[in-house]
Amino acid sequence: MSSSGDSIDRLLGIMQTLRGPDGCPWDRKQTHESLKSDLIEEAYEVLDAIESGSASDLEEELGDLLLQIVFHSQICAEEGNFEFSDVANGISDKLVRRHPHVFGEVQVSGADEVLQNWDAIKKAEKGEGDKPASIVSGIPKHLPSLQKAHQVQKRAARAGFDWDHIDDVFDKLHEEIEEVKEAISRNHEEDIREELGDLLFATVNISRFLGHNPEELLNHNIKKFIRRFQYVEHQVHASGKEFKAFTLVELDAFWDKAKAQEK
Predict the structure, then answer these.
(1) Domain 145-212 fold
(2) pLDDT tens for each residue of 44-53
Protein backbone atom coordinates (compact mmCIF):
# COMPACT_ATOMS: atom_id res chain seq x y z
CA MET A 1 0.00 0.00 0.00
CA SER A 2 1.38 3.40 -0.98
CA SER A 3 1.79 6.18 1.57
CA SER A 4 -0.37 9.28 1.59
CA GLY A 5 2.60 11.27 0.34
CA ASP A 6 3.12 8.94 -2.62
CA SER A 7 -0.59 9.12 -3.48
CA ILE A 8 -0.59 12.92 -3.43
CA ASP A 9 2.60 13.06 -5.50
CA ARG A 10 1.02 10.73 -8.07
CA LEU A 11 -2.10 12.90 -8.28
CA LEU A 12 -0.05 16.09 -8.63
CA GLY A 13 2.05 14.48 -11.36
CA ILE A 14 -1.05 13.40 -13.29
CA MET A 15 -2.47 16.92 -13.11
CA GLN A 16 0.82 18.41 -14.31
CA THR A 17 0.76 16.02 -17.28
CA LEU A 18 -2.86 16.82 -18.10
CA ARG A 19 -2.08 20.54 -18.07
CA GLY A 20 1.24 20.09 -19.91
CA PRO A 21 2.01 20.73 -23.62
CA ASP A 22 1.10 17.15 -24.58
CA GLY A 23 -1.78 16.87 -22.13
CA CYS A 24 -5.53 17.02 -22.45
CA PRO A 25 -6.97 19.90 -24.53
CA TRP A 26 -9.95 20.26 -22.17
CA ASP A 27 -7.83 20.34 -19.01
CA ARG A 28 -5.39 22.80 -20.54
CA LYS A 29 -8.09 25.34 -21.41
CA GLN A 30 -9.66 25.43 -17.93
CA THR A 31 -9.36 28.51 -15.70
CA HIS A 32 -10.38 29.39 -12.16
CA GLU A 33 -13.54 30.95 -13.58
CA SER A 34 -14.49 27.98 -15.75
CA LEU A 35 -14.05 25.56 -12.83
CA LYS A 36 -16.18 27.46 -10.29
CA SER A 37 -19.39 25.56 -10.98
CA ASP A 38 -17.54 22.22 -10.91
CA LEU A 39 -16.13 23.02 -7.46
CA ILE A 40 -19.60 23.81 -6.09
CA GLU A 41 -21.12 20.72 -7.72
CA GLU A 42 -18.45 18.41 -6.31
CA ALA A 43 -18.91 19.84 -2.81
CA TYR A 44 -22.64 19.11 -2.95
CA GLU A 45 -22.00 15.60 -4.27
CA VAL A 46 -19.87 14.98 -1.18
CA LEU A 47 -22.87 16.00 0.93
CA ASP A 48 -25.09 13.60 -1.03
CA ALA A 49 -22.58 10.80 -0.42
CA ILE A 50 -22.53 11.56 3.32
CA GLU A 51 -26.33 11.39 3.46
CA SER A 52 -26.37 8.13 1.49
CA GLY A 53 -24.27 6.45 4.17
CA SER A 54 -22.14 4.77 1.49
CA ALA A 55 -18.42 4.79 2.37
CA SER A 56 -17.47 3.90 -1.22
CA ASP A 57 -19.51 6.81 -2.62
CA LEU A 58 -17.95 9.16 -0.07
CA GLU A 59 -14.46 7.98 -0.98
CA GLU A 60 -15.13 8.66 -4.67
CA GLU A 61 -16.72 12.07 -4.13
CA LEU A 62 -13.96 13.22 -1.77
CA GLY A 63 -11.53 12.31 -4.54
CA ASP A 64 -13.49 14.42 -7.03
CA LEU A 65 -13.43 17.34 -4.59
CA LEU A 66 -9.71 16.90 -3.98
CA LEU A 67 -9.20 17.01 -7.74
CA GLN A 68 -10.69 20.50 -7.81
CA ILE A 69 -8.21 21.69 -5.17
CA VAL A 70 -5.32 20.15 -7.07
CA PHE A 71 -6.62 21.64 -10.33
CA HIS A 72 -6.78 25.19 -8.97
CA SER A 73 -3.39 24.78 -7.28
CA GLN A 74 -1.81 23.65 -10.54
CA ILE A 75 -3.18 26.67 -12.39
CA CYS A 76 -1.71 28.94 -9.70
CA ALA A 77 1.63 27.11 -9.89
CA GLU A 78 1.74 27.76 -13.64
CA GLU A 79 1.04 31.44 -12.97
CA GLY A 80 3.87 31.55 -10.42
CA ASN A 81 1.58 32.29 -7.49
CA PHE A 82 1.69 29.23 -5.23
CA GLU A 83 1.75 25.44 -5.36
CA PHE A 84 -0.29 22.66 -3.75
CA SER A 85 2.39 22.27 -1.06
CA ASP A 86 1.84 25.92 -0.08
CA VAL A 87 -1.89 25.22 0.31
CA ALA A 88 -1.22 22.17 2.49
CA ASN A 89 1.40 23.96 4.60
CA GLY A 90 -0.86 26.99 4.97
CA ILE A 91 -3.77 25.03 6.38
CA SER A 92 -1.39 23.03 8.62
CA ASP A 93 0.03 26.24 10.07
CA LYS A 94 -3.49 27.62 10.59
CA LEU A 95 -4.66 24.49 12.42
CA VAL A 96 -1.68 24.62 14.78
CA ARG A 97 -2.09 28.36 15.33
CA ARG A 98 -5.82 28.11 16.07
CA HIS A 99 -5.51 25.13 18.40
CA PRO A 100 -3.21 26.49 21.13
CA HIS A 101 -5.00 24.21 23.60
CA VAL A 102 -3.59 21.24 21.68
CA PHE A 103 -0.27 22.51 20.33
CA GLY A 104 0.42 25.11 23.03
CA GLU A 105 -0.13 25.80 26.70
CA VAL A 106 -3.67 27.23 26.59
CA GLN A 107 -6.27 25.51 28.77
CA VAL A 108 -9.94 25.26 27.72
CA SER A 109 -13.04 24.08 29.55
CA GLY A 110 -14.81 22.63 26.53
CA ALA A 111 -15.92 23.02 22.92
CA ASP A 112 -17.60 26.40 23.50
CA GLU A 113 -14.36 27.95 24.73
CA VAL A 114 -12.52 26.40 21.78
CA LEU A 115 -14.87 28.26 19.42
CA GLN A 116 -14.41 31.52 21.34
CA ASN A 117 -10.62 31.18 21.12
CA TRP A 118 -10.89 30.32 17.42
CA ASP A 119 -12.90 33.48 16.75
CA ALA A 120 -10.49 35.63 18.76
CA ILE A 121 -7.44 34.24 16.94
CA LYS A 122 -9.18 34.59 13.59
CA LYS A 123 -10.11 38.21 14.30
CA ALA A 124 -6.50 38.97 15.23
CA GLU A 125 -5.29 37.34 12.00
CA LYS A 126 -7.75 39.24 9.83
CA GLY A 127 -7.43 42.59 11.61
CA GLU A 128 -6.08 45.59 9.73
CA GLY A 129 -3.75 47.74 11.81
CA ASP A 130 -5.39 48.75 15.08
CA LYS A 131 -8.88 48.12 13.72
CA PRO A 132 -10.10 44.60 14.63
CA ALA A 133 -11.95 42.62 11.99
CA SER A 134 -15.70 42.20 12.43
CA ILE A 135 -16.78 38.86 13.83
CA VAL A 136 -19.34 38.59 11.00
CA SER A 137 -16.88 39.38 8.22
CA GLY A 138 -15.26 36.77 6.00
CA ILE A 139 -18.40 34.66 5.46
CA PRO A 140 -18.35 33.46 1.82
CA LYS A 141 -20.65 35.64 -0.26
CA HIS A 142 -21.66 32.70 -2.44
CA LEU A 143 -23.00 30.62 0.45
CA PRO A 144 -26.70 29.74 0.08
CA SER A 145 -28.73 32.44 1.81
CA LEU A 146 -30.11 30.20 4.56
CA GLN A 147 -26.65 28.94 5.40
CA LYS A 148 -25.22 32.47 5.31
CA ALA A 149 -27.94 33.75 7.67
CA HIS A 150 -27.23 30.82 9.99
CA GLN A 151 -23.50 31.59 10.05
CA VAL A 152 -24.05 35.32 10.70
CA GLN A 153 -26.40 34.56 13.59
CA LYS A 154 -24.07 31.93 15.08
CA ARG A 155 -21.13 34.33 15.07
CA ALA A 156 -23.19 37.13 16.61
CA ALA A 157 -24.45 34.72 19.27
CA ARG A 158 -20.91 33.64 20.17
CA ALA A 159 -20.12 37.32 20.79
CA GLY A 160 -23.03 37.47 23.25
CA PHE A 161 -25.58 39.09 20.90
CA ASP A 162 -28.39 36.56 21.29
CA TRP A 163 -31.80 35.98 22.81
CA ASP A 164 -32.04 34.69 26.37
CA HIS A 165 -34.97 32.33 25.79
CA ILE A 166 -36.77 30.65 22.90
CA ASP A 167 -39.94 32.62 23.81
CA ASP A 168 -38.07 35.80 22.89
CA VAL A 169 -37.27 34.36 19.47
CA PHE A 170 -40.92 33.42 18.90
CA ASP A 171 -42.00 36.92 19.95
CA LYS A 172 -39.71 38.28 17.23
CA LEU A 173 -41.14 35.83 14.70
CA HIS A 174 -44.73 36.91 15.50
CA GLU A 175 -43.65 40.55 15.27
CA GLU A 176 -42.23 39.95 11.78
CA ILE A 177 -45.41 38.12 10.67
CA GLU A 178 -47.52 41.11 11.71
CA GLU A 179 -45.18 43.46 9.84
CA VAL A 180 -45.58 41.35 6.68
CA LYS A 181 -49.37 41.55 7.04
CA GLU A 182 -49.17 45.30 7.53
CA ALA A 183 -46.98 45.73 4.44
CA ILE A 184 -49.43 43.64 2.41
CA SER A 185 -52.35 45.77 3.64
CA ARG A 186 -50.51 48.87 2.38
CA ASN A 187 -49.86 47.07 -0.91
CA HIS A 188 -46.30 48.44 -0.89
CA GLU A 189 -44.12 46.02 -2.86
CA GLU A 190 -40.77 47.25 -1.55
CA ASP A 191 -41.95 46.99 2.07
CA ILE A 192 -43.41 43.53 1.41
CA ARG A 193 -40.06 42.31 0.10
CA GLU A 194 -38.25 43.85 3.07
CA GLU A 195 -40.58 42.36 5.67
CA LEU A 196 -40.61 38.91 4.03
CA GLY A 197 -36.81 38.95 4.27
CA ASP A 198 -37.03 39.84 7.96
CA LEU A 199 -39.52 36.99 8.48
CA LEU A 200 -37.19 34.48 6.82
CA PHE A 201 -34.27 35.72 8.92
CA ALA A 202 -36.34 35.35 12.11
CA THR A 203 -37.28 31.79 11.09
CA VAL A 204 -33.61 30.95 10.64
CA ASN A 205 -33.02 32.33 14.14
CA ILE A 206 -35.48 29.84 15.63
CA SER A 207 -33.79 26.82 14.03
CA ARG A 208 -30.35 28.16 14.98
CA PHE A 209 -31.43 28.82 18.58
CA LEU A 210 -32.71 25.24 18.85
CA GLY A 211 -29.43 23.87 17.50
CA HIS A 212 -30.51 23.02 13.95
CA ASN A 213 -29.08 24.04 10.58
CA PRO A 214 -31.88 25.64 8.50
CA GLU A 215 -30.26 24.62 5.20
CA GLU A 216 -30.36 20.96 6.23
CA LEU A 217 -33.89 21.26 7.62
CA LEU A 218 -35.25 22.83 4.45
CA ASN A 219 -33.48 20.31 2.22
CA HIS A 220 -35.01 17.51 4.28
CA ASN A 221 -38.48 19.00 3.91
CA ILE A 222 -38.01 19.58 0.18
CA LYS A 223 -37.19 15.89 -0.24
CA LYS A 224 -40.26 15.01 1.83
CA PHE A 225 -42.48 17.26 -0.30
CA ILE A 226 -41.09 15.77 -3.54
CA ARG A 227 -41.64 12.23 -2.26
CA ARG A 228 -45.26 12.92 -1.28
CA PHE A 229 -46.05 14.95 -4.39
CA GLN A 230 -44.74 12.15 -6.59
CA TYR A 231 -47.17 9.81 -4.83
CA VAL A 232 -49.99 12.23 -5.67
CA GLU A 233 -48.77 12.31 -9.29
CA HIS A 234 -48.76 8.51 -9.39
CA GLN A 235 -52.37 8.37 -8.14
CA VAL A 236 -53.50 10.94 -10.68
CA HIS A 237 -51.75 9.16 -13.56
CA ALA A 238 -53.11 5.80 -12.44
CA SER A 239 -56.64 7.21 -12.68
CA GLY A 240 -56.14 8.05 -16.35
CA LYS A 241 -57.21 11.62 -15.66
CA GLU A 242 -55.37 14.94 -15.56
CA PHE A 243 -54.61 17.05 -12.49
CA LYS A 244 -57.27 19.59 -13.37
CA ALA A 245 -59.93 16.88 -13.15
CA PHE A 246 -59.38 16.61 -9.39
CA THR A 247 -60.45 19.03 -6.72
CA LEU A 248 -57.94 20.25 -4.13
CA VAL A 249 -59.78 18.18 -1.53
CA GLU A 250 -59.26 15.04 -3.61
CA LEU A 251 -55.60 15.82 -4.16
CA ASP A 252 -55.18 16.46 -0.43
CA ALA A 253 -56.64 13.01 0.21
CA PHE A 254 -53.86 11.48 -1.91
CA TRP A 255 -51.36 13.60 0.02
CA ASP A 256 -52.72 12.32 3.34
CA LYS A 257 -52.31 8.73 2.10
CA ALA A 258 -48.68 9.47 1.23
CA LYS A 259 -48.13 10.81 4.77
CA ALA A 260 -49.84 7.79 6.33
CA GLN A 261 -47.59 5.38 4.42
CA GLU A 262 -44.48 7.08 5.84
CA LYS A 263 -45.59 6.53 9.43
Answers:
(1) Helix Hairpins (1.10.287)
(2) 999 999 999 9
